[in-house]
Amino acid sequence: MKSLLFRRIILPAASVAFLAFALTGCGYTTHSVVTEKFSTIHIQPFSNKVDITKDTYGGNKYRIYRPLLESDINLAVTNAFLIDGNLKPATEELGDLVLKGELVEFRRDPLRYDNNDNVIEYRINIVVNLKLWDKKENKLLWEENNFTGDTTYFNTGSQARSEDQAVSDALGDLARRIVERTVENW
């Protein structure tokens, strides 16, 4: 009798409950909250606000600037939105949203040294300030200061990479984070 009750009532009820739980997931969605209202984004060219004349780094010789980095950021962010596909990059006239950004810092910090005090690992940080505007309502949706993309790299050994490759990876990280911040609206 218990076996029959288990097979006819408890097992089907447990299966339905399990399927209902499994199908609802844990809160993640496959679509964007932002794209329900917006479909296009205009990415204004990033401005360069890095002040290379100011000695704010205490003589740290590893903090530098790379020429035209703001243009590279703009290209990386545009490509990241194209790859993501939730918001289509558009001209200023056609964009529902406007992303405004400024490069405020580029850093290359040493992480590891060898026995002779030579740097063998660096961290690259690309820091920007961002604003996302709803163009139709002329309303600021969000603002992020000191938003950072980064990577680490070795300059010697079997895992060595060039600084250019590391900068490219940091740009990719920054662009991915900007798209996630925009689309997922966390």
What does this structure look like?
The protein has 186 residues and is an alpha/beta fold. The protein has a single domain (31-184), classed as ABC-type transport auxiliary lipoprotein component (Rossmann fold). 33% of the residues lie in helices and 31% in strands. It contains three helices and six strands, in the order H-E-E-H-E-E-E-E-H. It has helices at residues 2-24, 69-84, 163-184, and strands at residues 40-43, 47-48, 88-89, 97-113, 119-134, 139-154. Strands 1, 2, 3, 4, 5 and 6 form a six-stranded mixed β-sheet that branches. Helix 2 packs across helix 3. The longest helix is centred in the first third of the chain and has 23 residues, at 2-24.
